[in-house]
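Notes from hallway chat w/ T.B., transcribed later so I don't forget. T.B. wanted the structure written out for a chain they're using in a teaching module, and asked if we could keep both sequence and structure tokens in one place. Agreed to drop them here.
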Amino acid sequence: MQKPGMEQVRAARSDDRWEATYTPGSEMTVPGDFLTALEKHSGAKAFFKTQSGQNVYTLPIAPRRQ
């Protein structure tokens, strides 16, 4: 990371934005509406079941802290 990026990281850590950005993987839950939608698409559901927790967290369904 370049110096300007590191400056932003330090600033975010100092004013609590850093901790508020993402839910830790250990606390992540898949949204219920997404799971309901998977029930309607067997291929997507089968694929989703093959994903590790790490991979699920990278999907755009991963919730962010409010």
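Follow-up for T.B.: Residues 3-14 form the longest helix (12 residues). Might be a good example for the class.
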